Amino acid sequence: MADLLVEQPREITISKTFPAKPKLKPKAKTPSKTPESKYWSSFKSHQISNLISSIPSIDFSPISPHQFAATNSASLTLFSSQTLSPTSTISFSDVVTSCSFRCDGSLIAASDLSGLIRVFDVKTRTPLRRLKSHVRPVRFVKYPLLDKLHLVSGGDDSVVKYWDVAGESVVSDLYGHRDYARCGDCSPINGEIFVTGSYDHTVKLWDVRVDSKESVIEVNHGKPVEDVIFLPSGGMVATAGGNSLKIWDLIGGGKMLYSMESHNKTVTSICVGKESGEEALQYRILSVALDGYMKVFDYAKMKVTHSMRFPAPLMSIGFSPDCMTRVIGSSNGIIFAGRRKGKEDVGESKSGNFWALGSVEEPQRRALRPTYFRYFHRSQGEKPNEGDHLIMRPKKVKLSEHDKLLKKFRHKEALVSVLSGKNPENVVAVMEEMVARRKLLKCVVNLDEEELGLLLGFLHKHSTMPRHSGLLMGLTKKVLEMRADDIRASDALKSHIRNLKRSVEEEIRIQHSLQEIQGIISPLLRIAGRR
């Protein structure tokens, strides 16, 4: 019985010691980028600035390596989509307004202000055909995606023409627009169907098989139409005019599905871009405007998913079929090209010229097994195998001086030590730890005049910082209440209080100014949010 009353020795466990860290973390002011924003931001920008004037039209070749053409002044320039450098230039007698590659990429058609359409061989730049029927400037020319023998064009004479390129003759003159025909696009599912937009605010769908030569469907955009494109399904079109972009359902008889007015100035050009995500290929509408913004519109969710600002009014945009190159033409003759680095680009940058000699395979090492002599002579740099069990060596925690003093429960010395340093984060961390231990106010009472001066100097510098003000302003009030007599008796401490008072008054003045600015901006943001 006596043996049971004897207290048995207990095993003492020493808890781990961690350095003091601040608990008050400032929240991020800017939201993190979405995967879509990261994708569109991955196009590394490159400026091409040796062109003469505005770039009204850009078109990509549908055949790899997808070179692109840009019209500027009286010339048509071809660029490499890999190096973004010019490869050839075709000169005209008048200002070039539009260009379009044929579906096989071997020919390119271009129009100018004289009303002439010319067809060139892309490789040799040889002029093959001259199509002359428009009596006023031609504003757009387009090759159908599924037809190598015909062209569609429209101009300031308000006439849309369907051409037989081989015979240099007009198959159909389509009348219906009452103002300049400025843009057009061909259906991706039928080479005999196309859509045109005009400054008379109308967008017309044409079918050359109709004997009456009248438009099949007509919709009113409400503003002069600057650009129109078919969406990949072929059943919808997107139109741009004024500061709005609208989507129309052709299968539903021309019903408007959505209207987006996110630009502040006239939308000048739109195109379809593809986001090559991990799950599937997703289509987006890219729009540019005179306000210098490029915006990416997800027409499945009906919202703008990304925007980018450029330092000049934008006139045209193109996106390569392989999703690797984005090109934007501006009004001052600068092309803002962007190329996304792919796996092939990374391989070429790492291997240099070895790709010209073919792929070089690395020699495979024999598998390491316990029966091999090399297994028992592995160094620390040996990488573990997939099935190995790893035993990690615990990292030694390095404690600073104030952490060592806190570990020994010498709170006042820890506070003085950290106040002597230059890191406000550590000071706040030590104060939060002492608040948790209920020792902070007791330490403030026991500080001598010099140590109290250190504390007041720290409060003067950092008490108005937003990330620490919640703790430090409350501590400042307690210090003034508890040490009022000592402060009155010392001129040095009075100087610290005067500095602290000035910093608090300055912070209050700044907050009042910010509230006035917020009152001015809030109504503007509400108006912008409705648009």
Automatic annotation (TrEMBL):
GO terms for cellular component: nucleolus. Residues 383-524 form the U3 small nucleolar RNA-associated protein 15 C-terminal domain. It holds the Pfam family WD40. The lineage of its organism: Eukaryota, Viridiplantae, Streptophyta, Embryophyta, Tracheophyta. Gene3D superfamilies: YVTN repeat-like/Quinoprotein amine dehydrogenase (2.130.10.10). The gene is LOC105116675. This is U3 small nucleolar RNA-associated protein 15 homolog isoform X1. InterPro entries: U3_snoRNA-assocProt_15_C, WD40/YVTN_repeat-like_dom_sf, WD40_PAC1, WD40_repeat_dom_sf, WD40_rpt. Keywords: Nucleus, Repeat, rRNA processing, WD repeat. WD repeats lie at residues 131-173, 174-216. It is found in: Nucleus, Nucleolus. It comes from the Eukaryota. GO terms for biological process: positive regulation of transcription by RNA polymerase I; rRNA processing. It comes from Populus euphratica (Euphrates poplar).
